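hey can u check if this looks right to u? its 131 residues, i copy pasted from the old doc so theres a chance i mangled smth
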Amino acid sequence: MSNKRYRITLTANQLELVGAAVEIMLRSGMGQTYDLAEWLTLKGNDYPHGNGFDICIAERNLIKGVLEGITSYETVHSEKESDSVRELKTLYETIRHQQWKDSRAPEWGVGSHKPIKCGKEPVPEIERIDE
């Protein structure tokens, strides 16, 4: 295991994108494939209007079906979570907590709890830097 530490400075938009990417990885690792199927279909774009909308929905549902077949119940719901999934949980909770702090949401809001260490790595530190 490496003792190297990295500091990454992100804009609010970049933090949102990293959080979404981590959430998609985390959910996919748990067998929740809808968000990944939607991302693969739209590639970050909004749903089109008219006939394009119906085509996108059909593509998304087809991709979701394939992903569900790949991530079968037995594979995804094993008793032991992988190290990667545990580290993703920690990272996801940390990003979500920072987003909650920046939003000034109520104390009971989503992400208000301090992130906990789920894997072997320490909870990442996210420092807000105002210019």
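The CA atoms of residues 104 and 112 lie 10 Å apart.
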